[in-house]
Structure formats: structure tokens, C-alpha cells
From TrEMBL:
<dbReference type="InterPro" id="IPR001875">
    <property type="entry name" value="DED_dom"/>
</dbReference>
<protein>
    <submittedName>
        <fullName>FAS-associated death domain protein</fullName>
    </submittedName>
</protein>
<dbReference type="Pfam" id="PF00531">
    <property type="entry name" value="Death"/>
</dbReference>
<dbReference type="InterPro" id="IPR011029">
    <property type="entry name" value="DEATH-like_dom_sf"/>
</dbReference>
<dbReference type="GO" id="GO:0089720">
    <property type="term" value="F:caspase binding"/>
</dbReference>
<dbReference type="GO" id="GO:0005123">
    <property type="term" value="F:death receptor binding"/>
</dbReference>
<dbReference type="GO" id="GO:0042981">
    <property type="term" value="P:regulation of apoptotic process"/>
</dbReference>
<dbReference type="InterPro" id="IPR016729">
    <property type="entry name" value="FADD"/>
</dbReference>
<feature type="domain" description="DED">
    <location>
        <begin position="1"/>
        <end position="32"/>
    </location>
</feature>
<dbReference type="InterPro" id="IPR000488">
    <property type="entry name" value="Death_dom"/>
</dbReference>
<dbReference type="GO" id="GO:0031265">
    <property type="term" value="C:CD95 death-inducing signaling complex"/>
</dbReference>
<feature type="domain" description="Death">
    <location>
        <begin position="41"/>
        <end position="125"/>
    </location>
</feature>
<dbReference type="GO" id="GO:0097191">
    <property type="term" value="P:extrinsic apoptotic signaling pathway"/>
</dbReference>
<dbReference type="GO" id="GO:0045089">
    <property type="term" value="P:positive regulation of innate immune response"/>
</dbReference>
Length: 130
């Protein structure tokens, strides 16, 4: 953890180690933990879709979605900003793969000075833990 190879949102290295030592029981627990992580990400998506608003393009660029992809998303969903935001998040998730996590979305929201949305996501995720 100190070297940053294992964290709540980065379990790949741990999975590799558990596989090497043939600890199927712990791999099953890790699977359950990762499922919880995907639920956290889906919750973050919902909160962002509900609260982001007109600054969605700035946020999309911050998370690395290209202008060409933004144009495609807008063309496919011209009158539905919520769906445009969801498609941006899905695009980001696809590019990030296993590295996609709610904590990174919160950081990017804060980088865009969208602190209210970031706080709302963070609060909702904390509610999930209880």
C-alpha cells in the first residue's frame, strides 16, 4: 500500500499475488470487494448525471474524452443532457478499464472546481458504506 500498488480502487496487484499463491478463498473475497467497487462507480455515475449540468463538456475533456467523441455523443442524444453525461462516463470507463474508479472521478470534478458535485458524490458513497 505504501508503494501505491494496492488501494481500494487498485486491486490488480493483489489479485496477481493471490493467484500465484493459489488462495482461491481470498480471490473470492476480492471478487466480492471489486463488485462493491463497481457499485460505487455506478453510484458516482448516477450522482454526476443528476448534478453536473452545463459544465459537462469541461469535465468530459478533463477526464480525457476527445472533442470528436463529444460531438458523436451530442449527435446521438441531442436533447438529453443526462444521457450525454452518462455516455461520456461510459466512454471514460471503457478507456480506463480496471483503473476506472469513483475516487478518480471525484478528483477530476475537484480539478474542474465542481466541488459541490464532488461533495455530493463523496457523501453518497459514504452513505453506501453504512
Amino acid at each position: 500500500m505504501e508503494k501505491g500498488k494496492i488501494s481500494i480502487d487498485n486491486t490488480g496487484f493483489l489479485r496477481l499475488l493471490l493467484t500465484k499463491i493459489k488462495r482461491e478463498d481470498l480471490l473470492e473475497k476480492l471478487d466480492n470487494f471489486e463488485k462493491y467497487g463497481s457499485e460505487r462507480l455506478e453510484t458516482a455515475f448516477e450522482v454526476i448525471c443528476d448534478n453536473l449540468g452545463k459544465q459537462w463538456k469541461m469535465f468530459a475533456r478533463k477526464i480525457g474524452v476527445s472533442d470528436a467523441r463529444l460531438d458523436q455523443i451530442q449527435d446521438r442524444h441531442p436533447c438529453d443532457m443526462r444521457e450525454q453525461i452518462r455516455q461520456v462516463l461510459k466512454t471514460w470507463q471503457k478507456v480506463q478499464g480496471n483503473d476506472a474508479n469513483a475516487a478518480e472521478l471525484i478528483r477530476k470534478l475537484r480539478d474542474c472546481r465542481l466541488n459541490l458535485v464532488a461533495d455530493t458524490v463523496d457523501e453518497q458513497l459514504r452513505t453506501m458504506q453504512n
